[in-house]
Amino acid sequence: MSTVTAPQPAPTAQAPVGPAVQARIAWRGPVLYLVVALISLVFFSLLTPGEDTTRFMVSTRDDFVEIAPFAVPSRATALVLSVVALALALWATRLTTQRRKVPTWVPILFGGLVLLAFLVWVMAGNTNALPLTILLTGALTLSVPLIFGSLAGLLCERSGIINIAIEGQLLGGAFLAVVVASLTDNPYAGLVAAPVAGALVGAVLVLFAVRYRIDQIIVGVVLNVLVVGVTNYLFSTVLTQNPQSLNSPPRLPTLPIPVLSQIPVIGPVLFDHSLIVYLMYVAVAVLQVMVFRSRWGLRMRAVGEHPKAADTVGIKVNLTRVRNSILGGAVAGLGGAALVSAGLAFTKELTSGKGYIALAAMILGRWSPKGALAASLLFGFADSLRQVLNNLGSPVPSQFLAMLPYLATIFAVAGLVGRVRAPAAEGIPYVK
Amino acid sequence: MKLELRGITKRFGPLVANDDIHLTFESGEIHALLGENGAGKSTMMNVLYGLYEPDGGEILVDDAPVVFAGPADAMNAGIGMVHQHFMLVPVFTVAENVVLGHEPTAAGLGGLIDLTEARRRVREISDRFGFDVDPDALVEDLPVGVQQRVEIIKALSRDAKVLILDEPTAVLTPQETDELIAIMRQLREAGTSIVFITHKLREVRAVADRISVIRRGKVVGTATPDESEQQLASLMVGRSVNLGVEKAPPERGDVTFRVSDLTVIDPVGTRVIDDLSFEVRRGEIFAIAGVQGNGQSELAEVIVGLLRATSGSITLDGKELLGRSVADVLDAGVGYVPEDRSTDGLIASFSIAENLVLDLHDDAPFARAGSLSPARVAENARRRTEEFDVRLTSIQDPVSTLSGGNQQKVVLAREMSRPLRLLVASQPTRGLDVGSIEFVHKRIVTERDGGTPVVIVSTELDEVHALADRIAVMYRGRIVGVVPGDTHRDVLGLMMAGVPLEDAERSANEHHTTLGEADLEARTARSEEMTT
Predict the structure, then answer these.
(1) Can you tell me which residues the record assigns to a coiled coil (chain A) (predicted)?
(2) Predicted TM-score of the model (pTM)
(3) Test the B interface: residue of A286, A296, A313 with most B CBs within 10 Å
């Protein structure tokens, strides 16, 4: 061991400490923009035959104001759209290198441009016109169950309960809606009954999650399987024996809103629907305000983020969770009713995974009602596009078109949305 | 308001956390509850706050018995509490946190929160006490000191007459502590009675009007602030203790451990360690001080190889440690005491004997041809636990059955059982009782005297003072300055807030904090003792 005492090193002060935090440049966004813009430029415009035209149809025959179908030159139109998209991508890249925030409207506009370019390309040379109004109306109708489903999910998750059982709640709601509407021969009775089935599934979920503290994802998955089993059994026994009295629900009548429904394009797309669509508008608007501005919403979010803090100010944590889960289940039940609102008969596994897409929409929409609306509309649009293109015939195989919603999700989540943050106490049982 | 606890008893299974507690809190007085970790202070306060139901005894408010079914009842009775772990929702604004649970609602709007009124409430209290808190700031963006003020505002906005502060200084720099002490005095003048829970003797003597000492769930005595630290410590521990470690001046050898230009960028893009360089010689203790979350924990993890560095180099005995696996780093002679023994230091359900060979289980003599030798593992455990004075029933018991202090001794016993070339210890005495702290500190000093370079990461200035030969203060991933081990608390405190050394020395000379003065007094008292 050394016996020589080393000299005391002189105290050194470093330069004044500045802001040490400097974010790295997030290259993922700009790269994604550029790649997509280039794909659009090359495939949707440059590779399109120059003589092709694309026809669009805006109004339907019974519209108040009739707008004649019109045609555009495919390659030139797609070229203009793609070039604008590319310019937007370059601008976003520039902003990113300067570490400035890319405004929210950029991804929306960019997506719109590329989508239009895609439509122009896919319909190039097609003798049929692309019915825009039908496409958009379909998008809204198909997204209604998803919107209710993701609202249900966020009602539960904002209070700290993971709701994987949306699928089961939709299916249960659809089943009960069909049976009750058929029995009473009244579509509105089905609309009232559907939330009961959803709420029941929600109640079972929260019973196991809160009372027995079982892993909520497992309970949710088990409930989905259970509802599939129960409805399949009842369908193949009771429903198939009495299809007339039990499985032939009347259609929910369309209630056009006076004046508003007469507006070209917007009218038929937004204001010429059945009650359930208007209920969806109200639900999104009311929840958006209630979740973020009301006492109820503040308490529920506190329970989902920091239950102990909520408890110490006298908020009943588990009661809040029970109430929210049941309410959420009921909302998802309405989504089930929306699925069959066109007077569809019940079939086995009618929901076909829509509950899981609703869950994705909730995450994509960052646990907010308006986000859930936007994300569900995105999925609904992709679904509607697939149906329309299937009918008109397109160069893309229909299976690939069916992948569209999911591709859209991956791109949206990976590049455009940025970091999402779930409620902090989600899935964790509260024990004092 | 007068608050009285009469015969409060609380049991958790066989454990009696509170045993027949009698205490009275008078208004306009700061009443300190002094006790070690696990003495039952927090349990008692949770009973008082309605979070736990007592198994016996009663609570009286102004001589009338009350029963609290939940925190809401306690709040309505005028009791407010600032918890050790803040009860604030990080993603809410200050105003939202303050009004949560008793929200003002706009008339006729179906439960919509009146945010203007909420902000007004925050500003009113904030202005009255000079808190300077922005009602619209997100809580997660605020420094801990300000978060604590938000907690105080929260309690006061509910008209708290009794304010319970549970270990409020644990997360604060000395200057922030000083501001808190000023706030406590201000509140006392305004007639609030304050219950100040702590295990730090110095703070108690600085602010308390009355002191109650709790040991093993019982009130073992009351004292006044003129009582000496030594006396209070023996009352708290139940035997006479030796505060501070006796250690000889370091016998410094060569520089064997070098960190140069080290930078770590986390996945979010924050530079948690920013161009850091320092050297440690053989036979010296190099302490890294700083407020929690300024990159110290990450530094320890990078050294051991648990976290990947973005750039820079770390060498031990001239060999590069970066880029090597944890096993390689340990083989190079690094001992590592992690910050959190329960999650990183031990495997709770494994036996004490197994935990003692976690790092050596696949080396001879414990393992041969891929199978463990239980006899050798047990033999090793017997030797180590004896050497490190681990109090246990059987070495085959799960390590989770041990107390915190004994668990920490197991970690130390494991890490120090190999010949070390470097010891890295993160928060080596967090949550330990005075007796165990004494023991751990002694072992670390012994390791130093054996010629090992030691790096201590600690947020407790008392600990840094007790051990360090040199102190580096970290702020936002950088070293603000490296100073001698006996540097004054006030200077360190300012450096912990990012003030460079010269400026820190200047302003520390101009303004002493309450605890800093207590430090100086203690030092002069000690030197007087020596001369007589």
Answers:
(1) none
(2) 0.80
(3) A313
